[in-house]
Amino acid sequence: MTTVRLPLFPLNSVLFPGLVLPLNIFEERYRAMMRELLKTPESEPRRFGVVAIRDGHEVAPSAPGMPDQTALPERGPTAGFGDDPIRAFHSVGCIADAATIRERDNGTFEVLATGTTRVRLLSVDASGPFLTAELEELPEERGDEAGALAEGVLRAFRQYQKRLAGARERSLSTGADLPDEPAVVSYLVAAAMMLDTPSKQRLLQAPDTASRLRDELKLLRAETAIIRSLPSLPASELTRGPTSLN
Predict the structure, then answer these.
(1) Model-level pTM?
(2) Superkingdom of this entry's organism (predicted)?
(3) Would you give per-residue pLDDT tens digits along the chain (246 residues)?
């Protein structure tokens, strides 16, 4: 079992290996995290763990608000996550490698990271200015018939894209050829589908690539059937999600 201790960045979304994660950092706990990461030489990975939030808030309340105008703002690394933060997070996440960390004049940061490896969350430490966690790296097992399943998922995904384009009354344009390596296919499709966070989390936690692809095939067929009856849908980019507000 390979474990690693890294800064922990909880999000209201799921990060998959190989996918791009843009971040707009303004909370002090995450600014402190970025300042610490900048101490790592550029020649080495600047890594941190990303986990989806199960119960809590990505951005902590910073001023009194509804319904209690007298409520005090939350401070510290666990703000928004309760007294036992590990219970607020999903147990499987992804390591992110920050290729770009740019500090603005006002002390906020613009970050561009990429998911690399799935990890299991073992423990959370809130004793410092930001959360850190002990993470167990999870191998990506191929599973049975992954190659054939990937081909089927790609065909179903293209039909899904066409239905999305039709529902939006716009032409289909992915901007890039789709991959054919099963694990990469499984992660790209999981990230690109219009699913809620729990559904994406289940795909991330799949025991192997083949299992993930089987689940995606079912979801793609179901979602494509639903789209036929919808007059319009919001746009969704293929390989990157919205910038986190943090």
Answers:
(1) 0.84
(2) Bacteria
(3) 799 999 999 999 999 999 999 999 999 999 999 999 999 999 999 999 999 999 855 554 544 444 455 554 567 999 989 888 999 999 999 999 999 999 999 999 999 999 999 999 999 999 999 999 999 999 999 999 999 999 999 999 999 998 887 655 444 444 457 788 999 999 999 999 999 999 999 999 999 999 999 999 999 999 888 877 765 555 444 444 545 666
